[in-house]
Amino acid sequence: MAEAPEPFIRIRGLKQSFGDHEVLKGIDLDIMRGETLVILGGSGSGKSVLIKHLPGLLRPTHGTVTVNGLEISQLRERELGAVRRQMGFMFQGGALFDSMSVAENVAFPLREGGVRKEKEIAQRVAEALEIVRLPGEEDKMPADLSGGMRKRVALARAVVGKPACIFYDEPHAGLDPITADSIDHLIKDLQRHHQITNVVITHEMRSVFHIADRIVFLDQGVIRWTGTPDELQATQDPQLRAFIAGDSGEPWND
Ligand SMILES: Nc1ncnc2c1ncn2[C@@H]1O[C@H](COP(=O)(O)OP(=O)(O)OP(=O)(O)O)[C@@H](O)[C@H]1O
Ligand SMILES: [Mg+2]
């Protein structure tokens, strides 16, 4: 019998407390190589905290995170550097450095990772801007860009290190529906043409149905539900249905 494929990231028994506030209460999750996994959940459910564990930006209170066969929760900062070079991030808010040009923003992870040759940096920045469909925009300053363009620059910065995996924390926030859709196309292109594993936190249900291969629903620090987009469409779980419909349960006709 064929063995089940190794997940790219394996999370087991992950708990995270801040003081006496237990935010993650025991997460078990496998993220498979090449999939687009969407993390859903209400505000404060622990999505950002969970995603910050994947590159080892937080240390688990309990449990393990294994990336590509390597248990990262006990690694030193220096050893984590090598793990993080396989990963790209688009953080919540997606802030660019306002005093740096587009090129300098995108080059940032390369320089952090020790790439020194200016010619190589320029070439990789150009390729990353090509991928996010902003070719030739190197010299612009963030203040001169629209919200959607800033998101694409943040995505170029996530892509420039040729990562195996990209984490996106609310990449659609603040975008109009059409610009959000173009971000979804980029996310799927990265998966299909660059074999990138995507982990996406979003509240944009339209995007979820466009991009997700698999969805997990986080509620108060536990995974309450896992399934495919079709299974989510068909679910009878009242809490999930309310979440999809954007219904808080409060009356409108008063
Ligand atoms: N560094 C920290 N120190 C203390 N508490 C924290 C820290 N980071 C997160 N928390 C708390 O953990 C809980 C979950 O936060 P998290 O940012 O993961 O929520 P979220 O699901 O991403 O919400 P949103 O959809 O609003 O972004 C919140 O109550 C938050 O205040
Ligand atoms: Mg968050």
What CATH calls the topology is Rossmann fold
Instruction: List all distinct small molecules, including ions and cofactors, that are bound in this structure.
Output: adenosine-5'-triphosphate, magnesium ion
Low-confidence stretches: none
Major β-sheet strand ordering: 6-7-8-3-9-10
Could you name the CATH class? Answer: Alpha Beta
What's the β-strand tally? 10
- Main sheet: strands, sense, barrel: 6 strands, mixed
Mean pLDDT: 92
Give helix and strand order, one letter per element, not per position.
Answer: EEEHEEHEHHHEHEHEEHH
Which structural class is indicated by helix and strand composition?
A: alpha/beta
Question: How much helicity do the residues have?
Answer: 25-40%
Task: Describe the global form.
Answer: globular
Annotated CATH architecture: 3-Layer(aba) Sandwich
Q: How far from one another are the termini?
A: 61 Å
Count of the separate structural domains: 1
**CATH homologous superfamily annotation:** P-loop containing nucleotide triphosphate hydrolases
Computed CA radius of gyration, to the nearest angstrom: 19 Å
* Number of H/I helices: 9
Strand content: 15-25%
